[in-house]
Sequence to fold (123 residues):
Amino acid sequence: QVQLVESGGGLVQAGGSLRLSCAASGRTFSTYAMAWFRQAPGKEREFVTSITSRSFTYYRGSVSGRFTISRDNAKNTVYLQMNSLKAEDTAVYYCAADARDRYGYMGYEYGYWGQGTQVTVSS
Fold:
């Protein structure tokens, strides 16, 4: 029912910034919880941040204060603004969505996933 396409990844120097976008299909986007996950080579996928339909946000500790998730329901798009990037932020970043509008759900049970976009932070 929902297709997600991430964009905005790339190569950035440590301390720099990057803004990711996730474009979603479907008229029900505005009611879905949205999240960002990431996966570094050789590591498990990990939760980064999420936002509910009412824009309540939640972040893992390592990105709090540096990353900001937001959504624009008129554009069916969720964003991840990443500032003060570190080498350890290097990963493939995935957008996820779920009809269950759960606050701060950090598990993998999201109904829809994007293909991922690579973020590489050089030191």
Summary: The chain has a mean pLDDT of 97. DSSP finds no helices and eleven strands in the chain.
